[in-house]
Amino acid sequence: MEQTLGSKMGAWELLKTKFFYKPLSKDIGWWYTLGSLSFFLFIIQVITGFLLAGNYVPTLKEAYGSVEYIQNELTLGWLIRGVHHWASHFMVLTVFIHLLRAFFHGGYKKPNQFIWVTGLCLFFLTALMALTGYILPWSDRSYWAATILAKVFEFLPLIGGWLANMVGGIQVGGLTLTRYGSLHMILLPMAILAVIANHVALIQIHGEKGPPPRAGIEVGTQPFFPYQLAKDAIASLLMMAALFILARYVGVPADPAAQPLASINSVPKPEWFILFGYEILKMFEGKSIVIALTVFPLFGIAVLLFLPFYDKNPERAYTKRPLAIATGFGAVILILYLTLIAEVSSPLPGKFFAPDRPLTVKELAGLALFEKNVCYSCHSIEGVGMKNAPDLWKVGTKRDQEFLRNLLKDPDKTLGKKGKMVKYHLDDADREALVSYLRSIDFTHYKAKRIEPSLFRSAHIIYRNEQGITDREVSGRTQQIVALLEKNKEELHEKSPLAKTSREEIAQLAGYFAANYK
User: Fold this and answer.
1) Do 212 and 318 meet the contact criterion of CB atoms below 8 Å apart?
2) Is the pLDDT of residue 11 over 80?
3) Cβ neighbourhood burial of 507 (10 Å; 0-12, 13-18, 19+)
């Protein structure tokens, strides 16, 4: 018993001297709470993730419904899901800033090389965990994210096919959800925990260096307890408060259930932490995209991973590392710039353009199909929309009707390149309407005019029900169009805010459609 008591006292003494009363530089401040804050966020995610997993069903049929149940019916489910959601975002951010702090303070230098390497691994694993969690709700965005990831993997040489199969194959489905679920809920948390354990053990062995030394200033040391531990506790409490506030007042963005066979309802867009990579990817096309998917990421990872081994300069002071500090600032500014560009270059909902002249119902119906099929997720018009494909500002002057018709019917054959453009399954009438709209885009002869969704969505309803419009006189056609809109009021209400306007306004728009009906 004395031996056991002595052993326990020895362990306590060891814990006190090596952990609680371990001397730290006095100028270690709030920036050094980011490590413990990242671990705190990981624990929060494990706890909330465990509670969510108990109510989540990882099948195509029930995944979305189980998430809706958690959000709307489970007691405090909205809070658990909200905290889990925001904790994952904050963990990516805190680990990233933690790495930046280590870089600018020279914390990667000898003997802390492997502390840097494990920290870098932790960042990649954290980003992967956030990314895989994005797919589990099986919403519209989840489906397209899984589809795009599978396509990206397919592009990779040598291991692409294997990676695509590992996440469920090119055709996303039930296996995709199961694979991402096991990665997110089992493998990645275990890997993160193992890396954190190694990271902390290495810090205990080699010590925390603190900020770069200042010439002629002796800072001195102070014990970890209570000084730094108090800061860590305050940072964690403030973070917990922020998570509760965000879960209560912002929540988790709503998204409709995945509908693989329907038209795209949301613009596929990656999470904010990989937006810069997405922007780089957009600069490449065809086979050259392999460069963006392999050479750039591997080069970037190698530069960061081997940083402690090729940067032999022992100095940590900012003034004695001008090249490293300038490169670091340059890289941060470039990442922020690319992230901002990727964010603002996304299509702006509600901004749709056509030539400033009277438009036919068929042309307006085509604009409705341009919106419905999210053509703006690749094409811009006069700079509005994504830049993944050519700007269409004068497509009507460059391409004839036959080319556009064939392009929409079989883009691979028309362009002579496989996978260059998404193939949409339009029927003949809708294809002709979309061709009509594209042929109308001629901003070299006409000014661009913004068209309200209420107008072109209503035009599509009229176009699809045109058999009821037979009168050759404008006044007669106006009455028929008003009657048609009244008859399809439910669809009109669903698709267009026009249904909320007065009968006089409907009659006025019907007059416009009747005058330009062809």
Assistant:
1) yes
2) no
3) middle
